[in-house]
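Quiz preparation item.
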């Protein structure tokens, strides 16, 4: 005795339950997958944008530093005779020119060979005549080459970096150096280059020197601080360029792009809060959800409609089958509209007992679509499949091929050996083709391969792999044989019918023969 609830589970309810569950599960999974994909896309695009932005600013900073060193070099060439002549007015005029014309330096200083300041601009600094004995001055005097300093506090109390260039006499005697300074905690060239790119959503830029010290930050109070335990800073100061997700000093998850300024051993970091990058995601997903719901409801309606249409013939057959002992049972069953294959088969089985006949028909159908020698599909099967693809407008690639010099094989070794070569070739090709591909013997030594959903370049690669596989195989009693292959794609090589694509592939095959055989040619139709 079956449970009462089980008797109520008919095909209509089962189809509806299964289909609705499948649709809702697919809907939920699709929505989640879209959300994750959009989220990762936003993160990846933000990281890449910040990396490119940091690299662009690093290149601009590099160019600015190089231009500045060039200006210092030019000034150094002018200062040599002035230092030798101790022409103080001319020296003061040059430092004023260099500071005012470049718009880069906050101050410019000239040192002689014993580190004494001989000229300074602006004069309000009142440093003229002062002698420095700092590590920076000793480094400049000892190395006697262009330098970019680490941040330090000057005699006047300014936190700054210095760019210096040595001054040599005509006889290469060292005379001193000229230095331009950039005040890090005041308006400077770095703030004018980088500060204008500060956004209001929490995105910002900062610059660190080789010692991990901040030399630019949108918050002036941070300048001079050292950054420790930051993977982005560690990588950029090792000369690396890239993008990472990192926590900043406030514990905010940031999407950072970074690039080095090699000549100064600096690193530029552009970063944006992850929350800002993902701010529009929820609104975007809500819009997607609104767009998906109408289609989902329409699909559910179609499922209900088809569930009703599918289950109706089987329900009618089941009801009438219970009345098989009635005289009008045959006419009642004959009157049922079994509109799809399974219902029609069941109806015919009940009426005529055609099970065995159907098996025989299936066998005959298979025999009529199979090549007897190779077991491959024949031209009739090929035409049926082409008609189906044509009706579905399904993209596919076509490879036509035949055995080179096959007539010579038949003439020299006999037709039996030629048949063995064809059978062996069919076996080789079965091993190489994709499971969803269809392989046909189109006649004699000619074969055809249909590759649904395969692009032209992929088909060309498959054809080349087949050619190499066959060329490397030793055929019994014959040795090695080669193939000529033509490749075409639908709808790339035809817009109306697949027949045109077959002609295009055949033309490519003939072209392969014309080129000397044993090659793959892509159709140019």
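Solution:
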């Amino acid at each position: 005795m079956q449970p009462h609830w089980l008797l109520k589970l008919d095909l209509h309810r089962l189809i509806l339950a299964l289909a609705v569950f499948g649709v809702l599960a697919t809907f939920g999974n699709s929505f989640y997958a879209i959300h994750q994909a959009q989220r990762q896309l936003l993160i990846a695009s933000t990281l890449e944008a910040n990396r490119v932005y940091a690299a662009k600013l690093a290149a601009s900073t590099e160019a600015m530093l190089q231009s500045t060193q060039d200006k210092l070099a030019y000034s150094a060439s002018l200062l040599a005779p002035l230092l030798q002549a101790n022409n103080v007015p001319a020296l003061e005029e040059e430092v004023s020119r260099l500071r005012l014309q470049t718009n880069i330096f906050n101050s410019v200083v000239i040192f002689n060979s014993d580190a004494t300041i001989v000229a300074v601009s602006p004069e309000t600094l009142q440093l003229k005549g002062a002698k420095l004995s700092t590590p920076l001055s000793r480094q400049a005097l000892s190395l006697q080459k262009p330098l970019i300093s680490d941040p330090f506090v000057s005699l006047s109390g300014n936190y700054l970096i210095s760019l210096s260039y040595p001054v040599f006499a005509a006889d290469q005697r060292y005379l001193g150096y000229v230095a331009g300074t950039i005040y890090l905690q005041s308006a400077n060239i770095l703030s004018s280059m980088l500060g204008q790119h500060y956004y209001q959503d929490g995105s910002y830029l900062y610059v660190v020197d080789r010692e991990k010290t901040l030399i630019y930050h949108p918050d002036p109070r941070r300048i001079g601080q050292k950054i420790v335990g930051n993977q982005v800073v560690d990588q950029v100061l090792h000369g690396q360029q890239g993008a990472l997700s990192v926590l900043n000093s406030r514990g905010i998850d940031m999407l950072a792009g970074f690039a080095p300024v090699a000549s100064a051993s600096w690193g530029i970091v552009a970063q944006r809060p992850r929350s800002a990058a993902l701010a529009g995601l929820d609104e975007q997903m809500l819009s997607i959800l609104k767009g998906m719901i109408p289609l989902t409801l329409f699909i559910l309606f179609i499922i209900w409609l088809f569930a009703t249409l599918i289950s109706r013939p089987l329900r009618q057959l089941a009801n009438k089958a219970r009345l098989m002992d009635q005289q009008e049972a045959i006419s009642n069953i004959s009157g049922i509209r079994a509109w799809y294959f399974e219902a029609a088969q069941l109806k015919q089985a009940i009426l005529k007992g055609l099970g065995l006949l159907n098996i025989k028909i299936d066998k005959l159908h298979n025999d009529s679509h199979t090549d007897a020698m190779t077991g491959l599909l024949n031209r009739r099967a090929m035409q049926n499949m082409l008609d189906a693809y044509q009706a579905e407008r399904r993209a596919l690639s076509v490879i036509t091929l035949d055995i080179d010099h096959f007539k010579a094989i038949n003439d020299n070794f006999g037709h039996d050996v030629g048949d063995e070569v064809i059978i062996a070739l069919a076996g080789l090709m079965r091993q190489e083709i994709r499971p969803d591909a269809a392989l046909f013997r189109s006649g004699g030594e000619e074969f055809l391969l249909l590759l649904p959903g395969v692009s032209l370049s992929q088909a060309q690669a498959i054809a080349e792999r087949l050619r190499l596989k066959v060329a490397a195989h030793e055929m019994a009693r014959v040795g090695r044989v080669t193939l000529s292959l033509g490749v075409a794609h639908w709808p790339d090589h035809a817009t109306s019918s697949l027949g045109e694509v077959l002609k295009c592939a055949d033309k490519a095959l003939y072209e392969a023969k014309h080129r000397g055989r044993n090659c793959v040619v892509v159709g140019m139709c």
